[in-house]
Amino acid sequence: MDRELNQINVIPLVDVMLVLLVIVLTTATFITTGQIPVDLAKSKEAGDRRDVPLVITLAADGRLFMNDQPVSEEGLKTVLIPHPRESLVVVRADRVTMLERFVQVVDEVRGLGFRQVSLEVIRL
Known about the structure:
By secondary structure, this protein is of the alpha/beta class. The chain contains three helices and seven strands. Strands 4-3-2-5-6 form a five-stranded mixed β-sheet, covered by helices on one side. Strands 1-7 form a two-stranded parallel ribbon. α3 links the parallel β5 and β6.
């Protein structure tokens, strides 16, 4: 039991470096996901559709965006009209957004004939 350590054990060092690499790569993907700061609500279940949706963002200060481009409140209809009605529409609403404002936007989108309207949330 009294033997001297004459070698360096590098296995714990490699483990720590791999964990740090995973953290850095995960953080880098979260940074690039959205350009408009929206604090999304959380959900335990989420859908996994892979087609490219039309993204409508409701910011906390009430501003409205369509695919990261600012849209006036009256201009949402004119921006959505050229798109096919089968398109998936995803609404990203900050969790402090008034429910009434969210419902108004969803009603306007559904009133234009879009039937696939979803709310984007963060999975727990």
